[in-house]
Write a structure and sequence with these properties.
With 388 residues, this protein is α/β, with parallel strands linked by helices. The chain has 2 domains: 126 residues, Alpha-Beta Complex (Aspartate Aminotransferase, domain 1); 230 residues, 3-Layer(aba) Sandwich (Aspartate Aminotransferase, domain 2). Helix content is 39%, strand content 14%. It has 14 helices and 15 strands. Strand 11 and strand 12 form a beta hairpin. Helix 3 packs parallel to helix 11 and helix 13 packs across helix 14. The longest helix has 25 residues. The model has no long low-confidence stretch (mean pLDDT 97).
Amino acid sequence: MRSNFDQIIDRRGSGCTKWELYDADVLPLWVADMDFAVPSAVQEALVERVKHGIFGYAMREIPALLDEICDRTKRLYDWRVLPEQIIFFPGLTTALNACCRAFGARGDGVLVQPPVYYPFLAAIKNQGRKLNHAPLKRNDTKECIDYEIDFDVLEGAINTRTNLFLLCNPHNPVGKMYSTKHLERVANICERNDLVICSDEIHCELLLNHKTHRPTATLSSAIADRCITLMAPSKTFNLAGLSCGYAIIQNPMLMQQVRKSAAGLIPRVNVMGFAGALAAYQNGSEWLSELLPYLAANRDYVIQYLRDYMPTIRTTHPEATYLMWLDCSASAIPGNPHEFFLKKAKVALNDGAMFGPGGEGFVRLNIACPLATLTEALQRMRTALAAL
């Protein structure tokens, strides 16, 4: 099978947020879904499910999918997960809210590392918790932006009312993959301060540098006892609109607390979400093996294009995800770069300020699109900058 990621598929009129939020003359490279057709096996499975003709309430869980997840975690990470340690959610933003609701009380603190995926910040506020910011530290190379954890800042942001740490690994928006050594230092801080770790690992299979992802919960049994791991096929196989994610929780007490916080508020995954997720995990590996080098090539193309034609804009070199974090602060852009590129270039990016402290002057660029689309967007941005 050879997937055609260069194919331009018209998504307007399909009800998708990415392409229909803005006017028709705007190129949208913002929200994190891909402009690629999903694996053919997923399409076929969904068609077969539609042919059944009845769409009643789904079970809370599907045994075949539970087994597939357990097999996958063992195969990829040598991690033994049992079916009863998995809880499904209709999207991981609902899981983030459930976790923030489950631990502590209103006014308690939740630790985050901005700039970070903005639903982290929203979930904390939604549940009446307080943000404990431990900003990532810039550690740029000559070629690209880079970040690292400032462990003194991380521990210093914790107070007596901090109960939960929301970890993002691989990190959105900076594309960082944390090493085992760094994860162990983070875990030790959480142990010393008795924090529950909610580790969002949804991008863990979108690896661009041939590295191996290490789930936080696999560091030790003690860390597994305080860890909630969030995963999903949605980013990996472009199934975000099917709303099927899950949490792996190996401590029964934590599982009980999360289930209680979700009860009556968060609906079950729908039948189409289950069907798509199962097909992707069972039959999507070849498609994924073709996708990853395409994404890596797009990343490298952006880096070189910025160096050649927009050198005042610097970017990360993401190790994972299909998201690039662009620093526009040294450019001549007046005001907010998101607004500038939207109005002057007709390119929609994510506003860096949404990602918390340290995001001002940045935009997030989604490179999961055909190269022709990416090229046109960069050319529009270049022209807008040249007109200043």
